[in-house]
Q: What sequence folds into this?
């Protein structure tokens, strides 16, 4: 009986030690993998960009001022991995029409884009990225839709030739053969008085 107990005890101890060794090895593998992953992230941090602009929308002749924040997404704090930031303005046809490259100081930068007065009204895209973000593709870039409005292409011209001319005969009526005084009022299409000159002629000119 004692011999059987010793055999059972030795087997149980063997399986326990094997189980503990397996757990220890698995834990060590997990720790090693986490450390290796941390090294990769330290060498290749994932960056995210936030941009504040001075206006929600712009006219074509405005200056777009911006302040940028580049965040280390792994640590959720300003990134010091990148030293410069590229900001593009893309027109509705997908063409880059303005670009600014600004220096980053511990993840912070500010700058501006001058807008041409020839820009057409439409939805433009403000895009920003660092050289490091290029490694991950454009899906990781900062992008924001931005409305830019232009002045009307054509300003309606008011014709100075269109006038309203009203005559006011003395006494209210003109009587043939009697000399009368006639007043008149000349106004433009906006109801404003204008200076005019003319002559009175009969049916023979």
A:
């Amino acid at each position: 009986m004692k011999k059987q107990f010793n055999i059972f005890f030795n087997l149980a101890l063997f399986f326990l030690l094997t189980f503990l060794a397996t757990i220890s090895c698995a834990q060590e593998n997990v720790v090693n993998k986490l450390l290796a992953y941390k090294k990769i992230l330290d060498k290749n941090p994932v960056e995210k960009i936030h941009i504040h602009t001075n206006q929600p929308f712009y006219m074509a002749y405005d200056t777009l001022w911006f302040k940028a924040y580049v965040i280390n997404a792994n640590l959720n704090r300003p990134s010091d991995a990148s030293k410069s930031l590229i900001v593009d303005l893309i027109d509705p046809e997908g063409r880059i029409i303005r670009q600014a490259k600004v220096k980053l100081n511990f993840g912070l930068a500010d700058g501006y884009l001058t807008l041409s007065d020839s820009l057409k009204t439409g939805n433009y895209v403000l895009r920003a990225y660092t050289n490091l973000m290029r490694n991950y593709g454009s899906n990781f870039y900062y992008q924001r839709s931005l409305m830019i409005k232009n002045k009307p292409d054509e300003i309606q011209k008011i014709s100075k030739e269109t006038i309203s001319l009203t005559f006011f005969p003395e006494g209210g009526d003109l009587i043939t053969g009697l000399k009368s005084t006639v007043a008149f009022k000349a106004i433009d299409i906006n109801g404003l008085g204008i200076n005019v000159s003319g002559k009175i002629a009969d049916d023979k000119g």
